[in-house]
Each structure stands twice: as C-alpha cells, then as structure tokens.
Design goal:
50% of the residues lie in helices and 12% in strands. The chain has 187 residues and is α/β, with parallel strands linked by helices.
C-alpha cells in the first residue's frame, strides 16, 4: 500500500505486557469510538504460539513477520471499514512500535501498566490463553516504556476497565474524530 495512504488510517495501539487487559480495553475503546478491534495474538504464526505456550519467549526475529501481518491487517480493515482501528499488541520494545509506525504511520498509543503481582494474578486466573505466567518476567525485562516523543497515554490497571476506556476516549476521541470525517472516511 502506498505510504501516503497508510497515514490516513486512524489507529490506537493498546500495549503492555501479557495480562494487563489489552484485549478487554481495546475492545471497549473500539466499541466506544465506533471503531474496529483487532487482537495481535490472532496474527502469530502457529510455531510462535506453540513456542510461547511451552514457556519459551520469542526473540526479535520471530516478531517481525507477526508485526508486519498485524499492520497489514490494520491497514486492510481501516481501508475497508473506513473506521478507526483499535488493536491490542504487546509492542514491548521501541523497535516494535517503530516497525508498526513505519507500516501504519502515526498512531495513538495507550500503555497499560501495573504491579507485577496483580498482572501475575490476572494471568493465573485465565484459562483460555496460550501465554503462561512463567513468561511474565521475560516480558517485563523486554518492556521499553514509550518515550515522551511517543506521546503515549499511560494507564494503571488498578483502575477499572470502564475508567481506563473512558480516559482513553477522553484523550484520543477528539483527535480520532478530526482524523476521521463525519461520513466515516479517513481524511
């Protein structure tokens, strides 16, 4: 897709380590903004999922194709629906976010953070996810918090999902509306 078209898709990245509630929050934001939701986990190769399920973290090389598939889908869905795309993705390192930005252009970033014990507790309570609690420490070690130049909204997960969704919509809702005309077509 031409690079000038890539910058016309209003998008919101909801990022953080496993167990911070990225999917729940991104779904809530997409619904509140009338946008589309995508989960980065759906774009992992089966070998990557199997590796993580066995307790082994991915290395950078294993993530590049995944990030490219995800950004291609964000573009495809955004162009098809003409609505903002809100996507949940760990995006642990600045290089991963730079890769997404290179493919998508500007994007709004929400960084979900929280105490390690709370995140581990939430992960232990999930039964329907491939990511074991044992990978939390490797994710925390890899996490490079967004820099001020990335203009991320940082949200502590001690807040309720509704409070976090409201804060995100308050922060980015008007900007997304400006990026998106009243007929739903990117400007």
């Amino acid at each position: 897709m031409a690079s000038h078209l890539r910058r016309t898709i209003p998008s919101v990245l909801v990022m953080g380590v496993c167990g911070t509630g990225k999917t729940t929050i991104a779904k809530g934001v997409a619904q509140a903004l009338g946008g589309q939701f995508l989960d980065a986990d759906d774009y992992h190769q089966s070998a990557n999922v199997a590796r993580m399920a066995s307790g082994l973290p991915l290395d950078d090389a294993m993530r590049w194709d995944w990030l490219d598939r995800l950004s291609d889908e964000v573009l495809r869905v955004g162009m098809l629906t003409r609505h903002p795309v809100v996507f949940a993705c760990s995006a642990l390192k600045r290089a991963y976010r730079d890769r997404l930005r290179r493919n998508l252009g500007a994007m709004h970033i929400v960084h979900l953070t929280g105490d390690r014990s709370l995140i581990a507790q939430r992960m232990a309570q999930r039964s329907d996810h491939f990511m074991p609690v044992s990978l939390l420490d490797s994710q925390l070690a890899d996490m490079e918090a967004p820099t001020p130049s990335e203009k991320a909204l940082v949200c502590d997960i001690v807040q309720s999902p509704d409070q976090i969704v409201t804060a995100i919509c308050h922060q980015f809702g008007e900007q997304l509306a400006i990026e998106h005309d009243t007929k739903g077509a990117p400007v």
